[in-house]
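Weekly sync, protein design subgroup
Attendees: M.S., D.O., the rotation student, P.L. (late)

Item 1: inverse folding check
M.S. brought a backbone from last month's batch and wanted to see whether the design step gives back something sensible before we order anything. D.O. pointed out we never logged the input encoding, so this time it goes straight into the notes. Structure tokens as presented (218 positions):
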């Protein structure tokens, strides 16, 4: 695809996996095409269930934010230049899809280690800890998340039945300090995200009473 000279570089959204203990980057998964839309919803954490009027304006903590998006993956561009894309020619989109799918699987080595512990008589096996997952959608939105929904629709196949076009639907829950704590790497990243949101909010130019059709608050 040709571009005009001097045109800005297209920034892509994606997912970054970190070691939850050290913060080291384990993997970066960039979306081939950015989603056309991003759905975000918020469940407000307020004190309203008890009926105590003194608690009506209090917040228990950050809202529970969920994010949903659909991303497309297509091998057509790579298949135009087969000499440069041996993996696509041989396996279609299996590698790209597997990179996303393994986000929700414990590793085979972790499963094998737990089985070995069980066979050796270990009574309590600690659940496998997954990498810290970050959703990155520009420098203004880098948030720790947990995948809650994941589906893949494979829409086209090559003669060997390898998928060559697919649509991926992702549902994510933003993890806040309520989930991770302040000392966790993910908690630190959430606080930076919140502070950046506050700084952006401060840049918004407020309207006047006249804009609302009133002279002031009675």
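Designed sequence read out in the meeting:
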């Amino acid at each position: 695809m040709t571009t005009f000279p001097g045109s800005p570089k297209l920034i892509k959204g994606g997912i970054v996996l970190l070691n939850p203990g050290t913060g080291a980057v384990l993997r970066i998964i960039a979306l081939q095409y950015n989603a056309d839309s991003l759905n975000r919803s918020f469940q407000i954490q307020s004190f309203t269930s008890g009926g105590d009027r003194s608690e009506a304006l209090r917040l228990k903590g950050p809202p529970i934010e969920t994010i949903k998006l659909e991303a497309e993956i297509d091998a057509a561009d790579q298949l135009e230049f087969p000499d440069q894309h041996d993996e696509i020619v041989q396996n279609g989109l299996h590698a790209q899809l597997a990179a996303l799918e393994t986000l929700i699987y414990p590793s085979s080595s972790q499963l094998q280690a737990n089985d070995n512990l069980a066979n050796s008589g270990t009574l309590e096996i600690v659940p496998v800890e997954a990498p810290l997952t970050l959703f990155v959608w520009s420098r203004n939105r880098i948030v720790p998340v947990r995948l809650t929904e994941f589906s893949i629709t494979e829409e086209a196949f090559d003669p060997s039945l390898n998928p060559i076009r697919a649509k991926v639907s992702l549902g994510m829950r933003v993890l806040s300090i309520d989930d991770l704590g302040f000392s966790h790497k993910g908690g630190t990243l959430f606080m930076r995200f919140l502070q950046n949101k506050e700084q952006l909010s401060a840049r918004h130019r407020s309207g006047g009473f006249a804009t609302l059709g009133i002279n002031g608050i009675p």
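Discussion: The helical segments are 76-79, 86-91, 94-101, 108-119, 177-180, 185-203. The two ends are 60 Å apart (CA to CA).
Action: P.L. to compare against the previous round before Friday.
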